[in-house]
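Hi! If you just cloned this repository, the fastest way to understand the data is to look at a raw example. We've pasted two of them here, unedited. The first protein comes first, obviously.
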Amino acid sequence: LRQSKRIKFEFIAKHHSAKRPIKWLCHLFEVSRSGYYKWLNSEPSERSVENRSLSDFLKATSDEQHCIPGYRKLWKLAIENSFVCSKAKVQRLLQAMGYRSRACKRSFGRAASKSNAISAFNLLNREFNVADPNRVWVSDITQVRCLDGWQYLCVVLDLYSRKVVGWGTSKINNADLVIKTLNRAWKIRKPDGNKLLFHSDQGTQYTAENTLLWHHKRNITVSMSRKGNCWDNACAESFFAQYKKEWMSNLGEISRQQMTTQSRLYIVNYYNSVRKHGTLDGVSPNAFELIN
């Protein structure tokens, strides 16, 4: 609990602004302003100083050795350099930094594809009912097996009407696909970025530096699902479930080009304009926006 509060306080200290004041952020994260200011003005404890010093040593040493040694070897090196610590403490600090030896099959936080990854808090918090358009967009990516390989579909939905406001396909699942889809949605909807919350999972396509920079240039607030919590992005997940059940499963084997064509038919000609949505009082997303 103490660790969770510290993380929230650090986020508030880093991201507060005139548009996102401290009072609003404290209310959002359910922490007291007095507690935040007490944390902000407090001197770091002796243990915190020791942990930071040890963490800096472990990082510098592992970098010098090309991230090869495991926590046991790093612990021995720390002891040799006069640090007073246990193997468990070294292991805990390395895990907190996202480090794992390159000798292991998995290398958390060290893979090239994730080297610039930055995640965000779950600010949406499953509040899927939105009163105005262009206030909350959600996004996700799915894959479809085609005759000539996998083809990926990225969509952006406006939670106000559950309308797909941007979509794109590619044979490569990367940040470029997300940015291409976002550009299409931005061109069509022309939202005010200062009032827009964008929510996704923590996939590398969304945590990539280029994707986050795209949001930053437009003053968009970024929210991300918690790891392993698909329900945090339930609306996007639900869209893909219907997309595959109602449309793609009936087509049989198709090419990548045909997949893109069929995705357009489903999204533009059926889902947005015809399909009745239960959360919209039985009307289509297009009809809902028209009458509201």
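Ok, and the second one:
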Amino acid sequence: MIYCGIDWAERTHDVALVDSTGKLLAKRHIADDAAGYQLLIDLLAEHGDTEEDPIPIAIETSRGLLVAVLRQGKRRVFAINPMAAARYRDRHSVSRKKSDPGDALVLANILRTDMHAHRPLPNDSELARAIAVLARAQQDAVWNRQQMANQLRSLLREYYPAALDAFAGWANGLCRPEARALLKLAPTPAGAARLSRTQIRAALKRAGRKRGIEIDTDRLREALRTESAHQPQLVEEALGKQMLALLLQLEAACTAADDLAEAVEEAFPQHPDADVILSFPGLGVQLGARVLAEIGDDHLRFADARGLKAYAGSSPITRASGKKSSITRRRIKNDRLNHAGYLWTFAALTGSPGAKAHYRRRREEHGDWHAAALRNLFNRMLGQLYHCLQEGELFDEHVAFPVSLAAAA
């Protein structure tokens, strides 16, 4: 049996091959380009790599062109956590010496000794990988949009509180196109006080408003003319220019989030598992795509539902030593899936009577806090999702949350 370890870097990579006894068979230093990839493939072929019996490879990343090249065919690629690799390195040397060729050798020996304890990269379909790229990018764009909106809100509080009061009644506030159009038209309180009804009405129409324009025009004009404290004139104008710069970044973030959301809505329904995922209460296209992006469509990835729950961080973890024992929530988890689970279960409270009853029972009978009760509900619904994906069944409220005989009576 031959094992391969690759120490990944930005421009070059170190490769090491060992046999089942730990003997170093070959080592190479390759570039991160097509020629380097071909050199790696040729090196593996020289040591018995075939399409039917490929050599397993350990590497410290799960992304990039090199990983894409290696994942072709039936080859198993193991993404080893760099922290875990550092712990393995200390098994063979107490001097804490480190080198890139040595790290490649360590990765190869990890597979040689403990391959059964590590999980290879899932065999997801090309469509599932594409959905994962779009869903994660859309999630990042939403987070970036919120961060820019928070920065803009903080700046407006310093010199332009009337704008915040004017937009407070709108959902998403500063992220709405109407708010951005008005701020672009009047970047300072002095400019806002001079706005006419015609200018405000035209700004709302440019932002896409079709209804309620007259009512909002009067309300906005009155709110923007409210008397408040002012910065000195030169300082106010400088803050207005800073606000316009932040506004450009916010507009770019809003456009990116909307465009990526449209791409997700186009790609996700094409997946075979989309119908099963969308049948669950609280899961729409965007949130369902995020769930699929993290769990993938390789139904053999997790041996049972417990593995998926641990991966998502919904199941608790027990730490015991001697007479002491504690049960706490997991901190090492898939943060994206865990975040999606919080939104999923929170939305499911209004869409599923059984989910709401389960949440209330955790709050009232067990004394859980809000986040703990949602995490417990996420743990249960994640197990139901695993079963439905394995069996190809849609969500059934009566099966997922059966009513007891006493309650039915």
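That's it. A detail worth noticing about the second one: The beta strands are 3-7, 12-18, 24-31, 57-59, 77-79, 317-321, 324-328.
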